[in-house]
Design a protein that fits this description.
about 290 residues, alpha+beta, 11 strands, globular
Length: about 290
């Protein structure tokens, strides 16, 4: 079977909301520390990764079902009209990490192809197994914010979860459009607490820059409203703070496990408050806002 020359580890369908009128993506490059622009046909793509059948099944099982509902998604637990659409939403998040890893490490698409060639009843069982103890949610950010799109395809979303040591964990999230992202969180995580994490105006914009990925696609209006050098410096700072915050949460969880092993009761609500305040201090003034109007 012939292999397509140009395969996207992040689908053009996925990044279309960030395109300019001529289908280009504006991005910040962490390697060059500059803002660049490239056609979406070539950005986030690699040669000869997936065969045509794999690409076709990705389109049929994931992209086409989601295309009909993406614009109507709002904040809350995901309620899809049918199982194929819910399965598509879950697969959008679940498959992105292995697709990115395969592309970044130069691995071929055999593993992804084998998964997508499973009979649909087995694919259903696989998705159900992956979603055990988890729930799918979407979140629509405030009108003053925008969501960026890292070349990793996913970003870590801090969520409050009283059942884990330290009271917090990092959920897997992926953007859907410039104001909406989707995430898989544990059954015990609190959706209502997510908005409380936004202690200043550009919280979700900064969080969506993620921990990984050498490039991050930017909303065109954000680029137009800001000096490119200053915006690049800010994006780099967001990435550093995201990494530092993830490390701080890991240390908090490790300390909580150690304390509980010795019978010390940990106040998860207080842990959350202290972690949230530390995150805000690391990012700068809590009321700091980036001009994205």
């Amino acid at each position: 079977m012939s292999t397509p020359v140009n395969c996207h580890w992040i689908s053009r369908f996925h990044t279309k909301p960030w395109e300019t009128a001529d289908r280009q993506l504006i991005f910040y490059d962490f390697n060059t520390r500059k803002i660049g622009q490239r056609y979406s046909k070539t950005l986030f793509s690699a040669n000869e990764r997936n065969d045509r059948e794999t690409e076709a099944r990705l389109n049929r099982l994931v992209e086409t079902p989601l295309a009909s509902v993406r614009r109507g998604l709002t904040s809350g637990m995901v309620e899809m009209p049918d199982w194929p659409t819910y399965r598509a939403a879950a697969m959008m998040v679940l498959l992105q990490a292995p697709r990115t890893i395969a592309a970044r490490e130069g691995v071929d698409g055999d593993h992804l192809a084998r998964m997508l060639r499973l009979p649909e009843e087995q694919l259903d069982q696989l998705v159900q197994l992956c979603m055990l103890g988890k729930k799918l949610m979407t979140y629509r950010v405030d009108e003053s914010e925008r969501v960026c799109f890292t070349s990793a395809g996913i970003f870590a979303l801090p969520v409050v979860d009283p059942r884990v040591p330290g009271g917090m964990h990092g959920a897997i999230a992926t953007p859907l459009d410039q104001r909406t992202f989707m995430a898989i969180i544990s059954d015990s995580a609190s959706f209502d607490e997510i908005h409380r994490m936004a202690t200043y105006g550009n919280y979700f914009t900064a969080t969506s820059v993620g921990l990984l990925g050498d490039k991050v696609a930017l909303p065109p209006d954000v680029v137009a409203a800001n000096d490119p050098v200053s915006l690049g410096d800010e994006i780099a700072r967001w990435r550093r703070n995201n990494v530092e915050t993830a490390q701080a949460f890991a240390m908090l969880a490790e300390s909580a496990r150690a304390m509980e092993a010795y019978g010390v009761q940990v106040d998860h609500n207080d842990s959350f408050r202290r972690a949230r305040d530390a995150r805000a201090r690391a990012r700068g003034t809590k009321r700091e806002r980036t001009d994205v109007d």
